[in-house]
Structure formats: structure tokens, C-alpha cells
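call fold(seq) -> C-alpha cells
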Amino acid sequence: MTLEKTPLKDLYLAKGNAIGDHRGSFERLFCSKELELPLKNRTIVQINQSITTKVGAVRGLHYQKAPFQEMKWVRCLEGKVFDIALDIRLDSPTRFQWFATELSPQNHTMMIIPEGFAHGFQVLEGPARLLYLHTEFYTPEAEGGFHLLDPKLKIQLPLPVSEMSERDQQHPWI
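ret:
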């Protein structure tokens, strides 16, 4: 597994390496030793999965407020998504800047999103099944979000939006 920096401080991509033969393949999805730089003594406390079936559907931008901020690792196990991380750290020189990349089983990429970022995605090929590893437990009263289509963010989605939850439509604009 190799670690790549992104233009946003503390936001990383981890590239896996599937080893295959005539029977199929094997790939390490997470290794605390190989990912110790972004992990920095944090512990994975929760693992979640989302399945989104419709191409063009969006989820996010979601985050948890202090003191329940979380680091999360996001990997696409089926389908293909345009995965987005938005820097919302108050003291960051890149506040409200975003980074996005395509995640799919074929590219073996995982986005490592630190505390102080909001996360969302758009389905490019469905169904899209995402695996999330979290360093904090889900806390409903700490939920926060920003509207993914806020024109001030200038997030350039690859497809027209086909679906967005009512909850995500209610998120504030910056």
C-alpha cells in the first residue's frame, strides 16, 4: 500500500495492490503499520457500508462536529464514485477548498479524510458500495453538513445530479 499526499494538508490517498492469479485476487484493504502517518495513534472504532444504486445520485457533504470529529477512510468496493473531501477547518489556509478523486475497485484507491473535513460523493457507476472506517462513533447530535451544490464551493460534478436526499438538500450553504 502506498500513501500519496493531495493538495490539501493531511488529506491522503492510499493506493492498494491486488495480487491475482487464475483463482482471483487478494488485496490488503487496511494496514495500520503501512498507514501510520495519517493514523497517528488513532484507533478505528466503527466500520460502515453505504450502497447507492442510482447513477448520478449524490450523498453529502457530511461531517461530525467537535468533540466528535472523526477521521475516515473511504474505499469503493463496487461500482465507481467521484469522491469529494471539503476542508472546513477554521484555521486552514485551504478552508472551503475541495479535492476529489475517482474511487473504484479497479483503481484500488482509498481516500483518507482527516478531522475537519466534510465528505460526499457522486455515483458514476452503480450500484456503488462504499466501505468506511471511522475513528469516532457516529453521534447523531454532532452531525453537520454543507450543501454539495453550493455555487460558492464550485464543486464540478461529472454528471447531472439524479438524486439527493431530503436531509442533504437541507444542509446550509457557506
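The longest strand covers residues 117-134.
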